[in-house]
Design goal:
6 helices; Rossmann fold; 3-stranded parallel sheet; mainly alpha; 9% strand; elongated; 118 residues
Length: 118
């Protein structure tokens, strides 16, 4: 985390269909935008031009172009970093996770209760 806090950007070049990478949320927590392959759930978690940027999977030239843009536009990089931090605070804090988990249990309990009444 100490190294991540010093980073300008996290490059997430995975060509695998990741379910939910904790590395993305850790970057968001540090206010570090993510440049990620436009693939699977990663493309949903990293909102293009809001919390980072997408590049075409397997396309090193596209990845390099995205990084060059961010390197040359520090204000854009800062805006994406702020977006990443906001996304963390809105969706991924312990409090938010607790609220989601509690909601899931309440729905499951209500459905179980309805089934047992039948």
């Amino acid at each position: 985390m100490a190294l991540l806090k010093q980073a300008r950007v996290l490059v997430f070049p995975s060509e695998c269909y990741e379910n939910f990478s904790v590395a993305l949320v850790e970057a968001f927590a540090c206010g570090v935008p993510v440049v990620a392959a436009r693939l699977g759930s990663t493309a949903t978690i990293v909102a293009d031009e809001q919390t980072g940027m997408h590049f075409a999977p397997g396309d090193a030239a596209d990845l390099a172009a995205k990084l060059a843009v961010l390197w040359q536009q520090p204000e854009r990089l800062a805006r994406l970093g702020q977006g990443a931090r906001t996304a963390y605070e809105t969706h991924y804090t312990a409090h938010q996770n607790y609220r989601r988990l509690r909601s899931i249990y309440e729905i499951a309990a209500a459905r179980a209760h309805a089934v047992t009444k039948q």
